[in-house]
Specification:
By secondary structure, this protein is α+β, with helices and mostly antiparallel strands. The chain contains eight helices and four strands, in the order ααααααβαββαβ. The chain has helices at residues 3-17, 20-44, 52-74, 76-86, 98-115, 119-137, 155-168, 199-204, and strands spanning 143-152, 171-180, 183-193, 209-216. It has a four-stranded antiparallel sheet. The termini are far apart.
């Protein structure tokens, strides 16, 4: 059998396995699920700088993954070449938030499942994931963590500031304390009541306190 015969047989086999209706249906479901992921990401986003480009990437990722899987499942020879081509791809984009990894894998998984023809699994699974993420995102936090840095001149001012902290916050713990000839600096991890931060003004008004700085606490602390 010549090379032309092999090429024609493989080409005819791929044509017979290719279905325009299945392709359009798969792309439509991938688009719908990608838009659903886009809306969930937009609704649950809790950061400061919202990236429209990343949100749209989720839609495109679901579509592209679906297209790749449909091509792989329709032709065995093409699947081997596709695996070899994708194995050399390297992604170096930094992920700013851990939740972004969840959305990236969700878009990838949705595209793979739809491309494999398991559309009900993709729809039901995406609906469950979306509901869970929305419920957890809308859950109100009872207390908000902060790091408070207070600079004062003497122990009296320190004791007064600690008294205000103890009275106004729900929970606190001293993380570090530095004593020099110029004064005292101590850092406190606190959890406020209903995100109220007005007590910082009262601390700064105490005689002997030079400054009081409140910063958001992301769970990492370096002394």
């Amino acid at each position: 059998m010549s090379f032309n015969d092999i090429f024609k047989s493989n080409f005819l086999e791929s044509v017979t396995q290719f279905s325009v209706v299945d392709t359009l249906m798969g792309m439509a479901f991938a688009l719908a699920i990608g838009l659903f992921i886009f809306l969930i990401y937009k609704k649950t986003f809790s950061g400061v700088m919202y990236s429209t480009g990343f949100a749209m990437t989720l839609v495109g990722l679901a579509l592209v993954t679906n297209l790749v899987i449909m091509a792989v499942t329709s032709n065995v020879v093409l699947s081997l070449g596709m695996v070899g081509a994708l194995s050399i791809v390297r992604f170096r984009t930094a992920i700013k938030e851990p939740m972004e990894i969840v959305f990236l894998f969700w878009a990838l998984a949705a595209g793979i499942v739809v491309g494999a023809g398991m559309i009900p699994l993709a729809v039901i699974g995406s609906a469950i994931i979306g509901i869970i993420l929305v419920l957890f995102a809308n859950k109100k936090v009872s207390n908000v963590p902060y790091i408070l840095i207070v600079d004062c001149y003497d122990e009296r001012a320190e004791e007064t500031a600690c008294g205000i902290i103890k009275k106004e916050v729900e929970k606190y713990i001293v993380k570090s304390k530095t004593v020099t000839d110029d004064g005292i600096e101590f850092t406190v991890e606190i959890r406020t009541k209903n995100a109220a931060t007005g007590f910082v003004n009262h601390i700064n008004d105490v005689d002997g306190v030079s400054s009081a700085t409140l910063v958001a606490f992301n769970g990492e602390y370096m002394s």
